[in-house]
């Protein structure tokens, strides 16, 4: 079952003339989101988010859900100047560039991911770092998108997350912990001593699970909850239980702030949907 969560349209954009528009898509097992970006006016034209109401989705069912959305959404049936896609899942591992060998991709994942013989594994080089992201994308959906749009750029969502955070925070003093919440999953990125110290992804059911994983990560990295800065992104608001629980244990908690207004649209929080809205 597909549930539409939010649909926002910028009424100042001419949707009959999309030659200079970019389409960004984010894929995940529990949802699908997309936005259009007008390169001439330098603004987001539309934002749409869907949730998949199902605890277990097979690759075949996942593709069917995406195809159903495409059949209903007129904007997804149009041609764009460029198209980019991010894959959000936990089938990913980071490898230091000096030790990376593209012929050993399965070996990098085998300790944290169950890799099947026919899995397609690929990688992204993370800009502004010496890290390579190795991951398993939703290859059947990639194939469908190739049939639909032709050429497009795809990356793991954590590549977009890490690159953008490094670009903004790498040269700043202090230790930073970023938590990007997506439904009942969150990614955690730690920049320590001006370098990427850690990336990890956790699933949680309760607010107690949520705070446990964050504090455990901080302890393992010798980060003092009284000192490091915790910056929140994604599906979390100041009025939420997650935020209130965090605030009890971590002194410096704040939401990510945008440097430019062209990466948001009225109707969604500026710190939300980070990896979708930072593809262009």
Automatic annotation (TrEMBL):
Protein name in UniProt? DUF3822 domain-containing protein
The organism is Lutibacter flavus
- Organismal lineage: Bacteria, Pseudomonadati, Bacteroidota, Flavobacteriia, Flavobacteriales
């Amino acid at each position: 079952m597909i549930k539409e969560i939010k649909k926002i349209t910028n009424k100042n954009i001419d949707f009959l003339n999309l030659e200079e528009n970019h389409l960004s898509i984010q894929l995940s097992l529990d949802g699908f989101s997309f936005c259009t970006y007008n390169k001439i006016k330098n603004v987001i034209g539309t934002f749409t988010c869907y949730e998949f109401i199902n605890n277990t989705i097979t690759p075949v069912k996942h593709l069917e859900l995406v195809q159903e959305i495409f059949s209903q959404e007129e904007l997804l049936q149009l041609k764009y100047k460029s198209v980019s896609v991010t894959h959000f899942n936990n089938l990913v591992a980071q490898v230091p560039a000096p030790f990376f060998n593209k012929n050993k991709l399965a070996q990098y994942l085998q300790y944290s991911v169950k890799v099947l013989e026919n899995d397609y594994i690929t990688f992204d080089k993370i800009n502004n770092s010496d890290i390579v992201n190795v991951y398993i994308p939703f290859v059947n959906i990639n194939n469908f998108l190739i049939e639909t749009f032709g050429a497009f750029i795809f990356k793991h969502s954590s590549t977009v997350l890490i690159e953008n955070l490094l670009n903004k925070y790498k040269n700043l003093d202090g230790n930073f912990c970023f938590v990007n919440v997506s439904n009942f999953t969150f990614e955690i990125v730690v920049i320590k001593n001006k370098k990427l110290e850690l990336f990890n992804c956790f699933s949680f059911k309760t607010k107690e699970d949520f705070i446990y994983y964050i504090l455990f990560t901080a302890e393992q990295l010798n980060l003092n909850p009284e000192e490091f800065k915790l910056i929140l992104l994604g599906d979390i608001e100041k009025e939420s239980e997650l935020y209130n629980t965090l605030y009890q244990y971590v002194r410096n908690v704040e939401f990510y702030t945008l440097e430019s207004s062209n990466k948001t649209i009225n109707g969604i929080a500026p710190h939300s949907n980070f990896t979708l809205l930072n593809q262009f």
